[in-house]
Each structure stands twice: as C-alpha cells, then as structure tokens.
Amino acid sequence: MAQRSLHSPRLSLLVLLCLLLVCGFLATSLASYYASRDAIRDSIVNTELPLTSDTVYSEIQKDLIRPVLISSMMSRDTFVRDWVMSGEQDVGQLTRYLHEVQNHYGAFTSFFISERTHTYYQAKGVLKQVREDEPRDAWYYRVRAMQEPYEINVDPDMANQDRLTFFINYKVLDYDGQFIGATGVGLTVDAVVKLIDQYQRKYDRSIYFVDTQGKLTLTGAEGGPFGARVGQSLQDIAGLESLLHKLPTPQSGSFEYQERDRGHFLNVRFIPELNWYLFVDKHDRQAFAGIRHSLYLNLLACLLITAVVLGLVGLAVRRYQRNIEALATTDALTELPNRHGFDLLASQALREAQRNQNPLSALLIDLDHFKVLNDTHGHLAGDQVLRGFASLLRNSLRQSDILCRWGGEEFIVLLKDTDHHAAFKLAEKLRQQIDAAQFAYNGANLQIATSIGITDLRQDDTLHSLILRADHALYRAKQSGRNRVCVEPAGH
Ligand SMILES: Nc1nc2c(ncn2[C@@H]2O[C@H](COP(=O)(O)OP(=O)(O)OP(=O)(O)O)[C@@H](O)[C@H]2O)c(=O)[nH]1
After folding, report:
1. Same domain, 344 and 324
2. Does the predicted TM-score (pTM) go above 0.90?
C-alpha cells in the first residue's frame, strides 16, 4: 500500500506535466499555423492574385493597342473610302492594300466588308458575302448598328481554321458620315493563352475569362475551372453554380468560395475593352501545404520533446523517491536501518519465523555510560564511537540478521534461526569484542562497554512484546553492573 501511495502522486505529476506540455505545444504550434495561414491568405488575396490579374490585363492591353490604332487608320484611309465610293472596281487593289497592312503590321488577318455589296474582302481576296441570317455574320450587323466607332470582339476566325481571334471592328464612314462598311485587323489570342498556361503552371492558379452571361470565353490550353471548356457556363460547373450571383460588385474585387473540401480564392476584374471578366483562381490546399507540413513536423517534434521530458522527469522523480524512502528508513549517522526501517524488516521476519516455527532471538544492545564519554570527549567523539560501534556490529553479524539503531546509543538485532542459547554465545562474543575495541578519535583511543538483553520469539509474540522482554533483560544487565549479557527466555 505504501508503495502504491508513493506512485500515485508521481503519476499525477507526470499526467499534469504531459497535459501542460501538450497544451502548451499545441497552443503555440496552432497559433503560429493560423498566423502563417492568415499571412499567406492575405498575400494571396491582396498581392498574388491581383498581380497576376494586372499582368494578364496589361498583356491584353499591350496586344490590343497597336491593332486598334492600325484599324483606326484603315477606317480613315482615303484610298479605302474612295475605292468603295467609286464602285469597288478593282478587287486586286483592295486585296493588295489588305495584304500590305497584314504583312507590314504583323496582323493575323485584315478585312473589309462593304455595306453596298456585302462582300467580305481579306488579304487573299474575296472570302464571301455576309448575310443577316447567318449567325457567324451577326457581328457585322452589330457593328453597323453600334454607336461607338469600333468594338473589340473575340471570335473564331473562319478564314483561318476557326482559330480564336481578337477582332478590332471599325466602322468606315464616307465623307458625309454615312456607313459604308467595316474594316479592321484580327490577331490570334495565342499569346494570351500562352501567358495563361505559363502562369497556371508556374503559380498553380487557374486563369480564365467569363462573359457577362457567365460563359467561359477564353481559357488556358487545358481548359477552365475543373477542365471546363470555352462556351460552358459557370452555372453548369459543379462547385461554381452559384458563383455568378455571389460575384463581387460592382465588377471587380476578391471573392472566396468552397469546393467540397478545399477553399478557393478568386480575383475578378472586369475588362471593359472585351466586356469580359478575368478570373484568377487559386485553391488553398496547395497554398497551405507547406505550412501544414511544418505544423505536422512541429507537432511531431513536440511529441518527441514531451516524451523525452516525461521520461527524464519520471526517472528523476523515481530516483528522488528512492532517496526519500531510503532516508526515511535509514539512520544518517550509522547508515543502519532506523526504527521505521526496522519495523518493516522485523515484522516480515517475525511472521516468517512464526509461520515456519523457526527460532528467532532479539538482542537489545546499549552502550554503557555513553553520556560520560560524550561529556568527557565531546559529542563528535560520541558520534565517532557510535559509527565505529555500528560498523563492528555489522561486520560481526550475518547478512540475514536484522540490525538497527533503535535510538540514541541503543541498538537492536534480530537473529534468524537462532535460539536464546546460541544468541547468548554470540552476544557474549560481541560484548567482549566491543570491550576490547578501541575507537580512534582526534589522536585518542576511546573505549566503551555494552550491556545486552536477549530474549527469543514466542508463537504469540508481537514485535512489541518481543522487544519488551529484551528490554527487561537489558534492564537487568544494567542493574546488575553493566558490561554483561542477560537473557529473558521466552517462557518468562
Ligand atoms: N554523540 C552522540 N550522543 C548521543 C546520540 N544520541 C544520544 N546520545 C547521548 O547518549 C547519552 C545517553 O545517556 P543515558 O541515557 O543517560 O545513558 P548512558 O549515559 O549510556 O548510561 P547507561 O545507559 O545507564 O549506561 C545522552 O547523553 C545522549 O545525549 C548521538 O547520536 N550522538
């Protein structure tokens, strides 16, 4: 019971320490994880995505400004207007003109559509006649009807294997301001698509364009969000169905949405030249992977540190407890068991002897006139004699005998398997040895005599009754002149 009660505070201490360490480590690790997450999130929302959006936007503007100027010049060109107004006589003249513009300015295509004949001219010659009921020609009728002098449009170029092309469509007016046709140049969006691809690969983000109806208009080579293709509506893409309704207002800004188990950061910018939205989209799993990895490493390190600290504290506490236990049962001066230590050892020895009906004798040993020795030579000399006496006793007894400093200058010995006759012989031998012994102290040789009381164990004895009888025997030894051995046999 005593052992267990010593262990439970140790266990509580270790559990408490473990809780403190785990809570402390968890709190600091999680706090730094969430702080880093917020910092990364801020950087994505406020820096990374807007920067990508700016770059893509400026790339588009760069690509568009030159063609807009060229188209503007074409629409004001007197040759074109004169040629139309003089009845579109020599097709070769206009074709050469368009060919020259296309080659010189590096455009992908150049065109003129005549309002009078509805002929679509381009660098290679006449392409076709535009018709109001042909969906592919709707753009022309739109341009004709619009207020603004020009529009930028993205369409498949039917003259060039339907490659997606930016068209700058300018209205051409005669000298009286009457609409006589539409002209302009087209350039492929390959450069923008390449840029999109490069950014998507390098920075792990999706870049795509969406029109005001929510339809994907331009994506990287591998498609838009979740592989969606141009023409698909955001409303048909799982996870993005409700996105359009939630988009930031008025037209540009940041937005976050959830796609099953991962969050997305979205930067949306309205591009007035195209009447499109530019979407730059990044999911958080990749962004947070690094700090999540460090969080796991942190927690692992914390676990290891906790385990090591607990192990070391456990060892230290166990050693400390052992020392305390030893101190509690050992006499510091003689290093013999003290009365508490003796109680533990003696009770067990008594039980064993009584159970097995083995003889056992108790010797109560008291130094004679020790007070005189103390008074004459000093207390330290007394201590030295007590140490020497204890060591002499220890050396004269068997390992199995139980020896203890009972208090002051009194010692007790339990001799296992020994009746009072044998005990008497041993005690007498001890008494003579001590009588003859000299204890060196400070240049002097000190001598001391002992009185010894002996008794042996009865079946009904307790430790108390056994010692009481030995004490009677000791008393008789003292009374009858000291330096002698007296026996109080069990029968008395
Ligand atoms: N130096 C020293 N003296 C101690 C220690 N413990 C007890 N004593 C002394 O031992 C002395 C015991 O004195 P008494 O009980 O009168 O016994 P005594 O002088 O041996 O006389 P008798 O036992 O009658 O022969 C006291 O003076 C105590 O102070 C100790 O650890 N060191």
Report:
1. no
2. no
